[in-house]
Amino acid sequence: MRVILSGHRRGLGAALSEHLSGLGHQVFGFSSASDGAERVDAADFAQVSAWMAATVERHGPPDLVVANAALVVPPRPLWQLEPTEFSRLIDVNVKGMFYLFRAAIPAMLGPARGVLVGISSGYGRSTTPRMSAYCTSKWAVEGMVKTLAQELPKTMAAVSVDPGTLQTDMLKQALGAGAKFFPTPDQWVGKAANLLLGLGPQHNGQSLCV
Side-chain half-sphere of 75: how many Cα atoms within 13 Å? Predict the structure, then answer.
């Protein structure tokens, strides 16, 4: 299986990339933390589309596309958020998913197969104080995925996946010391990979959880 993954150098993305590669799948990823050709800003459509075109030309259309790149800002009330940090979060978490899907789908429509996954959150299906920026972005993920699901051929699928609460750098930024009480990506990745690899047209439009 050919897998494309944004945000593949840290946290969930790094664990998934390593695990899926270990299972024998071809994993192609990019991240703003990467080097060389893999250094791509998810919030820059020109960079994403150029990387996607080069990857598809060399390896063919993907079977699974996972929009994982995301940011979080330190918890605080909405009126204390800086406009620049809110804007950057939306650029990565929402526009970044759109850019990845927009770049990948045309190549996938030829064979009319494949699954597109938007990594969501419990905060995309509920809300909590002091997390308005992140909640806004993940509710947008849910809406974009469900709308895309209505547009795809019946042989394809768009699915949102809540990975659960994991001990990542993002969670440490949000919860501080409290993050240590949650599972690590390495403890989570086997179950997550099984879910992702099992997705198909029958899951189109669903909001799933690991």
Answer: 14
Predicted confidence (pLDDT) per residue in 121-177, tens digit? 999 999 999 999 999 999 999 999 999 999 999 999 999 999 977 665 665 666 566
What domains can you pick out in the chain, each with its CATH number?
2-209 (3.40.50.720)
The whole-angstrom separation of Cα 10 and Cα 91 is 19
Alpha-carbon distances of 24 from 21, 140, 146, rounded to whole Å? 5, 33, 30
* DSSP summary character for residue 158: E
Contact 86, 78 (CB under 8 A): no
Q: For residue 19, which of 173, 184, 140 has the smallest C-alpha distance? A: 184
CA distance 32 to 7: 7
d(CA 141, CA 51): 22
Show Cβ contacts of residue 165 under 8 Å, excluding neighbours closer than 6 positions.
122, 171, 182
Residue with tokens 């996607």: 52
